[in-house]
Amino acid sequence: MIKKITLLGMFSISIMSLAQQKFSIIPSVGYAWRTGKTPANLSREVSNHVKGLKSGLNFDISAYYHLKGNTALGLKYSHFTASSNSDFRVRNDNGQTFYVNLNTRDNISFVGPSFMYSNFNDESRHKLYFDIALGVISYSSNTNGMKITGSNLGMDTNVGYQYAITKNFSIGPKFGFTAGTLSRVKMNGTSMDLGDNQKESLHRVSLSAAAAFRF
Questions:
Q1: Of 2, 28, 170, 191, which residue is the least packed, with the fewest Cβ within 10 Å?
Q2: In a domain, 78, yes or no
């Protein structure tokens, strides 16, 4: 009898182990704010134009394979976009005043391997997770056809809460921080080194709504 109970217990444990979801896909969408300082020596018009590029739409998606316990390894991709449109008053050598329109669109993307720690395998409907990824952060800015691009090592980290609607689907808020700095860029294909006071900060914080699909 004891032998039968032992075998039954081992069989139940095996079934529970197989039933655990091994994969998670977590997309999110929200808003982000770039935290780098705006140079103090800009004119009011230029400063207002740059200010319009400091916040925008933030999207990311990550895929994880769950290891034993609460850890998981995977891949993360995130993307930030912002735009600003301004009219600048310009005076030529003859004293005539006219307006020039500047339309700028910025994009910042990140991709890299990621590590996650979570309680996704717990019975509770309330899920918490933390992830961190190291990879490549890329920047592109287009202003009236003038394109600036650059890339460097970057980091993306998030803390989130999920409420499990079902065993395979949960949803909740997420706070994120992305970091990276450019010391060299290309302007219309020509490389330029940036001085210490000219480096382009790609740091941003984000607040998003995230969903987790587990299988």
A1: 2
A2: yes
In a domain, 106, yes or no: yes
Q: For the chain, what is the domain count?
A: 1
Q: How confident is the model at residue 20 (pLDDT cuts 50, 70, 90)?
A: low
pLDDT in tens, 121-147: 999 999 999 999 999 999 999 999 999
Does 208 fall in a domain? yes
> Cα separation of 17 and 29, whole Å?
32
Signed CA dihedral, 155, 82, 209, 26: sign only: negative
- Rg of the chain over Cα atoms, rounded to whole angstroms, equals 24
CA torsion sign for 128, 115, 182, 59 is negative
Nearest residue to 36 (alpha-carbon basis) of 49, 48, 58, 53: 53
55-66/71-91 β-pairing: antiparallel
Give the up-direction half-sphere exposure of residue 213: CA atoms within 13 A in the CB hemisphere: 6
- Which token pair is 213? 């699909």
Question: Which pairing describes strands 169-179 and 146-164: parallel, antiparallel, or unpaired?
Answer: antiparallel
- From the CB of residue 90, how many other CB atoms can be counted at a distance below 10 Å? 10
